[in-house]
Write a sequence for this structure.
């Protein structure tokens, strides 16, 4: 079985890759486990890092918006996890780049899968940015998609494309609408939600951090552990399990920026922690305020997808799983 992860050099791409390598198998269309003998990580830069020096892994750098490149990447794949994207604030700041990567790139992946003629499994990562405007206290499967940003529009269109390509029998696709993943390793990026990780990550490595939103700003978060668990569970379920929309809305837990700061203090131990400076950025605040303040996905609960118990568990998992790697990044 060949598995492709676009965005494979990113945080979630590498996390998922390591879990697939450890697990060794994924389910095929008939619900039978198949050995993964090739795992191709495709991104704008080549993937590297601990756990990826495995003979089953191939890394490739290229342009997701180049259809010929994507055709070559997908050739022979049984499964494609499509994570590659320009993040929220980046897509909002550069309209053309956002549509080139997030829309044209997604269409290239779907067309390449269609050309295989083998009905491959495709998992597409969408976002809560698909919602916006006047929202209920918690969104659910019936909440209309009303994106207020280019990124949200691009992800919404991607969901509809996955649905239609699946309806036509070209592939077995599922889109998953993710909460904010917290805590990510690495450096802050252009995502409007990057502060949710930074407020935990940087202080625990002894670095001061600027938070661009108010302390009361709410974010719905899910840990990397639970997110990777969800990807694997989602892959192995039939695409029909997610209803005609072929989309799963994942639950998360609601936290404020201030609660994230306080959680760091509770788990500081003997570490010298950095401080949070609150410097309001109206553009980032507007984007974050337009996102859902809660999620109530009955389908995710019914299908057995789990959330983190609480914020303390999220921080403990970051310390156990990723803090050592983050310390190396901080010292580089």
């Amino acid at each position: 079985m060949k598995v492709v992860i676009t965005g494979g050099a990113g945080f979630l791409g590498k996390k998922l890759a390591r879990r697939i390598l450890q697990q060794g198998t994924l389910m095929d269309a008939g619900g039978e486990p198949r050995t993964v003998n090739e795992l191709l990580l495709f991104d704008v830069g080549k993937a590297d890092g601990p756990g990826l020096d495995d003979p089953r892994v191939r890394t490739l750098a290229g342009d997701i918006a180049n259809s010929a490149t994507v055709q070559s990447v997908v050739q022979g794949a049984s499964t494609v996890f499509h994570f590659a994207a320009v993040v929220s604030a980046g897509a909002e700041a550069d309209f053309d780049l956002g549509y080139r990567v997030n829309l044209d790139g997604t269409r290239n992946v779907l067309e390449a899968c269609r050309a295989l003629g083998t009905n491959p499994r495709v998992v597409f990562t969408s976002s809560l940015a698909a919602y916006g405007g006047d929202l209920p206290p918690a969104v659910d499967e019936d909440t209309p998609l009303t994106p207020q940003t280019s990124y949200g529009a691009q992800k919404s269109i991607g969901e509809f494309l996955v649905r239609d390509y699946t309806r036509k029998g070209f592939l077995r696709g599922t889109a998953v609408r993710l909460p904010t993943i917290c805590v990510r390793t690495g450096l802050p990026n252009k995502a409007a939600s990057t502060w949710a990780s930074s407020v935990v990550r940087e202080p625990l490595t002894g670095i001061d951090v600027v938070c661009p939103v108010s302390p009361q700003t709410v974010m719905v978060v899910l840990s990397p552990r639970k997110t990777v668990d969800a990807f694997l569970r989602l892959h192995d379920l039939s695409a029909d399990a997610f209803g005609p929309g072929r989309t799963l809305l994942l639950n998360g837990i609601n936290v404020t920026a201030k609660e994230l700061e306080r959680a760091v203090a509770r788990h500081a131990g003997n570490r010298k922690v950095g401080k949070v400076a609150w410097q309001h950025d109206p553009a980032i605040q507007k984007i974050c305020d337009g996102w859902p303040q809660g999620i109530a996905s009955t389908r995710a609960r019914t299908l057995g997808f789990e959330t983190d118990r609480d914020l303390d568990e999220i921080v403990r998992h970051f310390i156990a799983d990723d803090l050592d790697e983050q310390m190396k990044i901080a010292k580089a």
User: Anything to note?
Assistant: The mean pLDDT is 95. The two ends are 37 Å apart (CA to CA). The chain has two domains: 2-179+221-249, 195-219+253-293+309-331. The chain has twelve helices and 14 strands.
